[in-house]
Amino acid sequence: NYWLSGVAAHHLKHSLQLPLITTFHTLARVKAASGDRSYGYEKRGKIETEVIGCSDVILSNSSFEMEQLVTHYGADPSRIEIVPPGVDHSIFNPASKKEARQLLNLNEQPTLLFVGRIQPLKGVDLAVSTLSELEHKDAQLILIGSSSGLEGPSEERRIRQLVEESGLTNRVLFVEPQSHEKLVDWYRAADVVLMPSRSESFGLVALEAAACGVPVVASAVGGLQTIVEDNSSGYLINDRDPCSYAEHVSKIIDDSGKAEEMSIEAVKRSKSFTWSVTAARLRRICLDLQSRSLVDCA
């Protein structure tokens, strides 16, 4: 599931003569192409190429990630299987927004929600700037997550400074990471979920939000384009201008009819993503591998 575990699995394939199935949580060369220049990506990209070249099956979250594997790593398309993650609909499902806000002690002001790691790749600064650009000066932004990675702590300090300098201290709420059972109430309390990521192999947050009936305004990158149907279950933004995000957020919070239509469509789209379907696909792939010869290292 990550490049380091891929390295270990690559060695185990040869020592145990077992097939190697690989899935990547993130891809170094895709992150670098998005503008993330973190130290070590060049070396990591080479290692990922070696793992991909020797994988008997490479699991991709979406057709967009499959294209990235082929373009950036020269992966053999015949060995790529598209298996998107699922969502637990017994947890993530629609419920009363009013009751969720009462439970969380939130007011009835327009509420934007960001869920994810605080790191440059996730675009938390863009979420804050979107709030600043909104004409609704009573709107609030809830940031659920904590710093992650080498740049995480400095990024969190930068975000908190941005909030203060933008005069948004009383309108931005920082919340620690939540369990699924608690996170669902934050989704239900939101009017809009923001996902301004620079890259995203899938975007499980967008799927969880959709399952709860919350429209998503997201960057038009990676797997987010699979989950969010533009102008139907949410909006996909092709630039990184906070004014563009604010404009589309306003379309939702200013039009209750449009918000309700998007909510219904979001739930409908989420129904095709279940863990039982994902498990069935994985089982079929594993069974097929039993009758195939191992792939030699590229």
Protein model, in words:
It comes from marine metagenome. Residues 99-267 form the Glycosyl transferase family domain. With 298 residues, the protein is α/β, with parallel strands linked by helices. The chain has two domains: 3-86 and 274-289, Rossmann fold; 97-270, Rossmann fold (3-Layer(aba) Sandwich), CATH 3.40.50. It contains 13 helices and nine strands. The protein has a six-stranded parallel β-sheet with strand order 6-5-4-7-8-9, with helices on both faces. A three-stranded parallel β-sheet has the order 1-2-3. Helix 10 links the parallel strand 8 and strand 9. Helix 5 (97-104) packs across helix 8, helix 6 (124-133) crosses helix 11 and helix 9 (204-211) packs across helix 12 (256-270). The radius of gyration is 20 Å and the shape is globular. The chain starts with a helix and ends in a 9-residue tail after the last helix. The mean pLDDT is 94.
What's the multimeric state?
single chain
**CATH topology title of the largest domain:** Rossmann fold
Q: Give helix % range.
A: 40-55%
Query: What is the β-strand count?
Result: 9
Uncertain regions: pLDDT < 50 for 5+ in a row?
Answer: none
How are helices and strands ordered from N to C? HEHHEHEHEHEHEHEHEHEHHH
Assign an overall shape.
globular
What is the average per-residue confidence, as pLDDT, rounded to a whole number? Answer: 94
- Kindly report the spatial arrangement of strands forming the biggest sheet: 6-5-4-7-8-9
Considering the protein shown, what is the CATH homologous superfamily of the largest domain?
A: Glycogen Phosphorylase B
Pfam families: Glyco_transf_4, Glycos_transf_1
Keywords: Transferase
Domain Glycosyltransferase subfamily 4-like N-terminal: 2-90
Protein name: Glycosyl transferase family 1 domain-containing protein
